[in-house]
Amino acid sequence: MASDRDILPSWAKPSHYFISLYDIEYGGNFSYQGTVTINFDVKNDQKWNDVVLNAHQLKIKSAELKTDSSRESRNITYDEKRQRVTLDFGEQFQYSGEATLTIKFEGTINNIMAGFYRSKYKPQPNNDPPASVAQVGDFHYMFSTQFESCDARRAFPCFDEPNLKASFDVEIEIPEDQVALSNMPEKEVKKSRKSGFKTVLFDRTPVMSTYLLAWAIGDFEYVEAFTKRKYNGKNIPVRVYTTRGIKEQGQWALENCHQIVDYFSETFQIDYPLPKVDLLAVHEFSHGAMENWGLITYRTTAVLFDPKTSADKYRNRVAYVVAHELAHQWFGNLVTMDWWSELWLNEGFATWVGWFAIDHLYPDWNVWGQFVTESVQTAFQFDGLRYSHPIEVPVRDGLEVDQIFDSISYLKGSSVIRMLSAHLGEKVFLQGVADYLKAHQYGNATTNDLWSALSKASGKDVNSFMDNWIRKIGFPVLSVAEEPGQIGVRQQRFLLSGDVKPEEDETIWWIPLGLHTGSSPSTASLHKTNALTQKEDTVRDIDDSFYVVNKNLSGFYRTNYPPQRLVKLGDARHHLTVQDKIGIIGDAYANAVAGHGATPGLLALAEKFQDENDYLVWQQIISSVGHVRSTFAHTDDISDALKKFYLKLISPAAEKVGWEFKDGEGFLVGQLRAALILSAGLAGHQSTIEEALRRFDTYTSGDKGSLNPSLRSAVFSIAVKERGEPALKTVQNEYLTTTSVDGKEICLQSMGRVQTAELAQQVLSFIFSDKVALQDKHSGTIVLAANSKVNIEVWKFIRDNWDSTIYPTLGGNLVVLERFLRFGLNKFSDSAVADEIQEFFKDKDQRGYDRGIVVINDTIRSSDKYRRRDEGVVREWLQAHGYA
């Protein structure tokens, strides 16, 4: 047994499960009865008398073991902390070979979005569910599962580890007028012994991990399409399932889904291996989506889209999330990581290849520009903390893994994949991936298995230059020094706090330089020196008329240019790619925070971009300058001057883009309009405020068609900020009555724009009322936490209501709790607040959210250090340029 893991005894290996669920209680306690029969192989040369497997919050009633004879369980003991049950069958005996274990058990369909759980929803008008559908008050319920990472054990006793793969037969007893779904198609529907019920048996699954098993029960309907390619002579049916009355909102996901299944089948050179693809919209969902093989489950806003009422940004989100989850059908489901420490193999790759597919379908969306401004920059932010973690992180037991479903596994993982793909060439890289999948299909694999396949395909020793990127913490900043005709480059670990210690700076990363140089931006070409493989080096034959490092930000590192070079790059901005612009702005901000550069350099650079037309570049400007404004929000003279600076920066672009959406206008233009109106209005641009309030009044007086759905967020936010309580009440009412799939999320975020402590407490009380679903409690909090006017109220609310409200509400699902805390408390720039938070949590049992507390602490202290260091130079620059 691997000493670094706490795993089940290795001598018992499951091969097949038959799961039967029956006597489900549709209301009351929501209990159910189950029987599971597990075939497993015993390889044990010692005498034994018990079997250990995973079970959590289940009641085991009996167990029978069949080997060369039959035995009933004598004693059943639970280890709650390790979520295990030991079945004791009496006297010890010697046996190796095939064995069968049959367990009768009882469980509860919980309401914490983990295991087998229930989701509440309000039916659509004129779409009353059948009487058999569970109902409490105004809400009806659907049932579904969420087993990743370690919650199959909440639904049935099992060997719940990713490398203990088996096949599954599932049968479920349900009311005759409801629908049951699982990973595979229906095999048979039998009449139940109970009147009004039927038992649905599904086809046997392929060999797979327990976390990928799924089932669902509800008043479902669907829209359907078919793949264009044939698989085993047939076009595969693709369906989007919803509760009754909203299936048409699944059309956009459906349109993407069948194309992506075909595209990935060709890209990975392996046909999609199941006979169906179902996508299910789940009304309460802790994540964005879950890649259960053949039955992919989604948060409603990640799979449903209504062209008439949805904000257009959700079109992008739905397409991408559909692609990400479909990528997992191969990368994760067909080939699964050996252990949770290699989670990035699933998530990093699915993130990169999800965007790869969307770029193929929608080349005009500039997907890689979006990837650089959202994914790469977010990964930099988290990985710039001292207490980040490596992409491949040790996980002792499965219960630790939920906290590494984070920006490092997903976003740094995918950024490093993108860097490697750019270096090897896309075609060679994808061939290596296809070879890897073929070699390990229906099995488990490690990072080294992927490196081996890529090394063989490329003829390069991938492990030698990628190992540090995966197994070492952090990433480098490349500092550039100029001399005539050459540049010196030096790497060191980048920390936002700027105080890297020698012992933290021992890693030497392989850094692809992506260096372009020439007499002008338009004639620049790739330099022959392609990588830095030591701490520092000199690169000769540089034309200092123009050069840019890390072209298109394809390498995962920051670049620290000399101040005068930053000015020149700003002057050459019209010749830079969108990714290059995002890179130099993001780097200028991060280097200011860390002390490698200074904030005036960022502000001077940003000033040059007043004439920028690209949404993705503006997104980076808004983010970077917004962080600076937030950091100095409580230094009144600087805060006022930065507001003037920001208004001057953003006003021309906001006025130019206007309010009206034009026919044939590109997706990115609409996104630019929504972003600039929101930013300009919140910054105090008077004509934007007046128009927003006019449109708010027209919309809330009943003329819903008067406001483009993509501008609801801007208009609601500006109204709440400007008008306070009356507008807040109106938006809360909109939250309670909206029928738009994204309406609740938009309303919650808009409420976070309040300007007084009293209203902030009102918003938090509303969020923690039963009116807001568990999955959405972080949505309003994120914006409130980023609102420097009132974000201290979030900390006060958590501190004062921890025992009575926060922990009882969120503690059942630690993924949700950790996310709420991390997003709710990481925006302060005062170490005194960090001290308070640290003191408050020091005696709490932090298992399941301890990494989040470390991230909060590290982030606040880095911001505090930055604020203190740059306060003087920022004030001086603002005064010198007429803003103060």
TrEMBL record:
Keywords: Aminopeptidase, Hydrolase, Metal-binding, Metalloprotease, Protease, Zinc. SUPFAM superfamilies: Leukotriene A4 hydrolase N-terminal domain (SSF63737), Metalloproteases ('zincins'), catalytic domain (SSF55486). GO terms for cellular component: cytoplasm; membrane. Zn(2+) binds at H324, H328, E347. One of its GO terms (molecular function) is zinc ion binding. Residues 14-212 form the Aminopeptidase N-like N-terminal domain. It holds the Pfam family Peptidase_M1. Residues 252-469 form the Peptidase M1 membrane alanine aminopeptidase domain. Its cofactor is Zn(2+). GO terms for biological process: peptide catabolic process; proteolysis. Its EC number is 3.4.11.-. It comes from the Eukaryota. The active site is at E325 (proton acceptor). CDD domains: M1_APN-Q_like. Residues 546-861 form the ERAP1-like C-terminal domain. Binds 1 zinc ion per subunit. The record marks Y410 as: Transition state stabilizer. Belongs to the peptidase M1 family. This is Aminopeptidase. It comes from Lophiostoma macrostomum CBS 122681.
